[in-house]
């Protein structure tokens, strides 16, 4: 029985052509994603955006991030290796996002481990309509803040990715366990989601499209690699080669 105070939204899976449509817009528009991200994942994130058909800009200087973000299609904020300067750059990015209505993807890396990270997450979540992508531990640590955040899209990655917004709810069951054996694969996922948010106004659809393509690329890379090292290389190649035919073949009819 359904309580009248509880709204139950069933998670949907995107159709292959819906994913292909978002990816086609990325390769056609080639959005630039301004990434304030951690020093561990910077290189992989930039390469994954290029493979996806988007343009990375990885500027971090507090006096230029605003200018760099103004012309970007989307902004990624990742606190993985936050330091005194990048802490000051974040409010500048939030101001550009507010004034120019840019989509923001926030990756609350290790937010459960430090009060500084919690504080910054609180600051970011005051911006309406933010998309937050984290693993299950990070999203659980932020559950109260997320419940209070206006217009937030919650993306919890793992074996099955869960995407929830006021508009829609999706589940993505693609991927491979090797995706947890190379650092920064989750961080790069946030960047691909940001690229999709630059071309698709429905952020839940954007996230589901990015994670479906990324998960299928992970499955293909796992078939071709010899271990985590070659998996990283194969993942970049599989993202670059992703197309409508591969999506249709790997997603099946209604999966
Ligand atoms: N057990 C799994 N099976 C299949 N795919 C997985 C599994 N775990 C994670 N993934 C995929 O790996 C990607 C990264 O998600 P994950 O939750 O591992 O990020 P993360 O913990 O933030 O990683 P990092 O901090 O190293 O960047 C997602 O696309 C997700 O779908
Ligand atoms: C390992 C690590 N430490 C800070 S950021 C990062 C990359 C994965 O989130
Ligand atoms: Mg992470």
Automatic annotation (TrEMBL):
Which CDD domains is this protein grouped with? THZ_kinase (cd01170)
Keyword annotations of the record: ATP-binding, Kinase, Magnesium, Metal-binding, Nucleotide-binding, Thiamine biosynthesis, Transferase
Cofactor (UniProt): Mg(2+)
Binding residue positions for ATP: 133, 157
Pathway of this protein?
Cofactor biosynthesis; thiamine diphosphate biosynthesis; 4-methyl-5-(2-phosphoethyl)-thiazole from 5-(2-hydroxyethyl)-4-methylthiazole: step 1/1
Binding residue positions for substrate: 58, 184
Q: Which GO terms describe its molecular function?
A: kinase activity
Q: Which HAMAP family match?
A: Thz_kinase
So what does this one do? Catalyzes the phosphorylation of the hydroxyl group of 4-methyl-5-beta-hydroxyethylthiazole (THZ).
Entry protein name = Hydroxyethylthiazole kinase
Taxonomic lineage of this organism? Bacteria, Pseudomonadati, Pseudomonadota, Alphaproteobacteria, Hyphomicrobiales
The gene it comes from is thiM
